[in-house]
Amino acid sequence: MIHRGCTILALIMLLVRPAGADTGQLRDVVEGDGLRVLIFSSPAPLRAGEVEFAVVATDSENGAPLESFDLLLRVRRTSWDPGTPSWVIGGEPDPGNAFAHKAVFDIPEAGEWLFLVEVSSQGRMLEVPVEVAVGLPRPEWWQLLPLILLALPLGLLVVIRDHLGLRRRLGAGAVQGSAG
Amino acid sequence: MSWREAFLQASMTSWQLELFPTLIAIVVGVVYIRGFIGIHRSQPARFPWWRAWSFILGIVVLLLAIFSPLDALGGFLLSAHMAQHFLLLMVVPPLLLMGAPANPMLWGLPATVRTDWLGPFLASPAVHRIGHVLVHPVTGWISMVTMTWLWHVPVLYELALVDPFWHQVEHGLFLGSAILFWFPVIQPWPSRSIWPRWTMIPYLLTADLQNTIFSAFFAFSPRVIYPIYEQVTPALGLDAMEDQALAAGLMWVPGSIIFVLPIAGVVRTLLRRSGPEGQRERWARAQARTSRAPVESIALPVLGAESAPREVVRTGRDRRRFDLLKLPLIGPMLASRRGRHGVRLLMLALAVLVVVDGFWGPRTSSMNLAGVLPWTLWRGIAVLLLLVGGNLLCMACPFTLPRTLAGRFLPRRLSFPRALRTKWFAVGLVVCWLWAYEVLALWDSPAGTAWVVIGYFVAAFLVDAFFRGASFCKYVCPIGQFHFVQSMVSPVEVAPRDASVCAECTTQECIRGSATVAGCGTDLFLPRKVGNLDCTFCLDCADACPRDNVGIKATSLGSGLTFPDWRSSLGRLSDRLDWSALLLVLVFGAFANATGMTAPILDWQDDLTAAWGFQTHAMAATVLLGFELLVLPALVAVALVLILPRTVAPAPVGMNHRGWLGRSALALVPLGVVMWVVHYQFHFVTSWAAIIPISHRALLDVSGGSLEGLLGTPSWSAACCAPVPPWLLEVEILLLNLGFVMSWAIAFAFARAALPGARTSRVLLGILPLGVVQFALLLWGIWIVLQPMQMRGTLLP
Question: How far is CA A53 from CA A18, A38, B408, in A?
Fold first, then answer.
């Protein structure tokens, strides 16, 4: 029985489809020039710091996923002016998902950002503008320490409440005892 | 538009409604009004309606002072800032105190909170002593005057101006000290004056005198006292000196009026007392004093009551207990058999949609109803409903329809096999469910989700086609077990409306059934039922009861967790290893499930998978989940069972290892519940809008694209990624803390019951091992919510 169970488990492990394909939160689905592009971002919510844009491209005619395509990400602030820097990041195949390409970018600050996602494959090319509201960086744990440790004074209140209740019970018992 | 106009427009529209203070204000207002209505009915002369209006107005003015454009303008204009201080010091406290808030607030709270939680504190002599010192006129006068002068010292004033934290501290201290100052002046009932009433005249006059000196200092100062305004005020086209004089005038004139006005009231009271009417009043009061208890005992009678020992058999009728079935609209719908079937049919229709779209819709789960309806919307709504409404989810469950169908056409004579009449089978299924979710990526597979739904219907039909009662719900359904356990902390349960009716009942239709309606399918005998365990809220008992004596009644929060003794159909919960295992798996499952979506853990799984040479995460996820779901709870359980009998010694007679384990498992449930809530609410808040383009897409698919001209194309980008509110993280941490406190309170109650009469320090040391486990789980939960969350979205074949 155990042997059979282990065999089934091993088979599941070997045959199971890729799990945990962390392509992220679906941002947009756009079609054009024979391509259908699905754009994902991660983590959620997007905060200043490292973010990942993943793209899955399919043939818009037959829906077949493209295993080989090029991904280019151009990033700049939405309130762009010639003095503001912009970045170009190349994509690479996503090890977690055979059909996705991803590009990682370190967003320097919170605000409105524009990601131009460029996908090209066999002479076809599609550029998708994605406007993203990026939040402030996640606060450090020590900045939230008063809230995190709120449990301690609250827990102490539980103990004090019990203690007061005990004193009252003992007091009432003593009164009853003397009366009796 | 000029810069000045633009600035003024921006300032005037800058309402900064912050979540926590607003929520607190709303809760305080609701509690006050709830208590006030009851007290007004019994004492209309002492609590006329103007008191309630005064209190509510006080709250509204307080919110205006801290959230209105006054706050934004205060950074640029001293006069605006002084107007804000004026409201906090001179307007809000008298308005609040004229509402005599002590009694309405107490009676507005749930009875459990009032008696079990606040009671011991308010009845404590130490608290009385502290209260007496705080409301003493000397304390009030000194505290408000000190705060007023201290916070207007330039260094501290400018610190509060540039730092929001210190600004909030300043406002809190102003409000607190002003409440203390105005307390002896207003003397809200039932407090009694410490000093004779006439002393309020010099009290107010001296306060007015210091206010005059304070204002004159600003009015006649030859220079701008706060240099920061020299920089910012001229930008508005105003002179900083003129603004300073305006601020001084604001404090001086209206401030003096407010200090002097109550003096007229005090003089009037004194004159009335010295006349014949006053003599009659004094005589009547003296008579009343000899014939009744002291004021405190009238005002706070409930505080002296110890929490009564809980009894299995309820006694008497409590009309005041909330009954969900008595609510307008919702109540009749839930009470009606057809109404409940209607809800189930609606859920069935949704399940059919999930199956159809799961098989024939897009394979990307973010674009499929099977990806979003069950895993984002249903779970998010479910955990909230379980918290506030009990097990209403099981009531609406479409999988109970096969049971109804089977009951109508099949004999269903078999009893469920005795060997399987435990929770062990369900524990195994819950583990498999969590494993499949994680390793087979059910959230990511619309077709997999559709197969699960179909499998559920088939299993429910097969089990209920042969076996009596609600065997599938009670012994098999892993979702049902999840609902049972999560609803343990819910404040409502299916219960008799009047226990005395049950005591006289000899026919017991609620469990035996009537000629037309089956009794309880999970064998719960209503008068002896405790909490929501094994209760599917199907209300068959309500339909069967000929006396209309079944309701969905309010109960003490967590009462189902602090009752380890005998329960109908379940026996002694603390002796049931299967129940303990189920509780532990669901508690640790909450943390394991949420851990699985954090970036560091997924990265770690990537590394492990690469190191082992596997193609998929399956093995790494299985190893991690196996540790979190089986090994870790087992280790914790063994450790607690070995340690607790030594620390909580001498153990009560009859207490064995199972008893310790059962109590420990019960004391961890609230932490597990809040972790599920935090996890599922995160998905719900971040992704609920995805249902809009998905429904749009499904409509277009169903119409074959013919509606595209009318509806257009789905706007994926508009629905995606709604900005996450900045308070979400704080709320998550707060919820985890509340879960910890509830868990800790339950653990402490168990230890106290085991060591009655022992010193508190001994009880504390005895239960500390369990407290350490609870604190570790709290920190685990906080670690999870502080991590970047990967939103796993798509998987193509």
Answer: 19, 10, 54
Q: Tell me which residue range forms the domain holding B505.
A: 494-555
A174 CB neighbours in chain B (<8 A) are none
Q: How many Cβ atoms sit within 10 Å of the Cβ of residue B311? A: 8
pLDDT tens, position by position, B32-87: 998 999 888 888 888 899 999 999 999 999 998 888 888 878 878 888 889 999 99
Chain A CB contacts of B745 under 8 Å are 158
- Mean of all residue pLDDT scores within chain B: 84
Both B510 and B604 in a single domain?
no
Neighbours of B758 (CB within 10 A): 16
Evaluate the CA torsion angle B111, B117, B118, B122 in order and state its sign: positive
Residues B243 and B280 in one domain: yes
> Chain B residues with CB inside 8 Å of A13's CB?
614, 616, 618-619, 622
Residue B91: inside a domain, yes or no? yes
**Statement: residue B626 has pLDDT above 60:** yes
Longest dimension (CA), chain A: 101
Does B721 contact A46 at a Cβ distance shorter than 8 Å? yes
Q: Is residue B212 part of a domain?
A: yes
Domain count, chain B: 3
Q: How far apart are CA A45 and CA A107, in angstroms?
A: 13
Contacts of B701 (CB under 8 A, 6+ apart): B361
Indicate if B157 and B232 belong to the same structural domain.
yes
Read off the tokens for B218: 């600003």
What does the block give as tokens for B745?
């309170």
Residue B39 included in any domain: yes
CA torsion B65→B69→B74→B80, rounded to 10°? -70
The distance of B668 to chain A (nearest Cα, Å) reads 14
> Residue B594 to residues B163, B237, B700, B729: CA-CA distances in angstroms?
36, 55, 35, 15
How many beta carbons lie within 10 A of that of residue A16, not counting itself? 17
CB-CB under 8 Å, A20 with B441: yes
**Pairwise CA distance, residues B362 & B370, whole Å:** 10
Using CA atoms, how far apart are residues A155 and B324, in angstroms rounded to an integer? 32
Torsion of CA A151, A156, A161, A167, to 10 degrees: 170
Which tens digits make up the pLDDT trace of B397-438?
A: 988 887 777 777 777 778 888 888 899 999 999 999 999 888
- Dihedrals phi, psi of B550, to nearest 5 degrees: -120, 130
Alpha-carbon distance of B315 to B563, in angstroms, equals: 17
Q: Flag whether residue A114 sits within 8 Å of chain B, measured between CB atoms.
A: no
Q: How many helices (H) and strands (E) does chain B have?
A: 42, 4
CB-nearest to B687 from A25, A65, A165 is A25
Q: What count of Cα atoms within 13 Å lies in the side-chain half-sphere of residue B551?
A: 22
Q: pLDDT (tens digit, 9 = 90+) per residue, B237-295?
A: 778 888 888 888 988 888 888 888 888 888 888 887 766 666 666 666 666 555 444 33
Asked if the Cβ–Cβ distance from A155 to B771 is below 8 Å, we say yes
Other C-beta atoms closer than 10 Å to the C-beta of A107 total 20
Domains and CATH numbers, chain A: 22-141 (2.60.40.10)
pLDDT along chain A (180 residues), means of 10: 62 47 69 87 82 86 82 85 78 76 88 89 89 83 86 87 78 48
Closest CB to B752 among A56, A132, A162: A162
Same structural domain for residues B710 and B628?
yes
B641 and B540 fall within a common domain = no
Do B208 and B164 reside in the same domain of the chain?
Answer: yes
Weakest mean pLDDT among B262-271, B548-557, B610-619: B610-619
As beta bridge partners, residue A114 has A76, A131
Residue B689 — pLDDT band, cuts 50, 70, 90?
A: confident
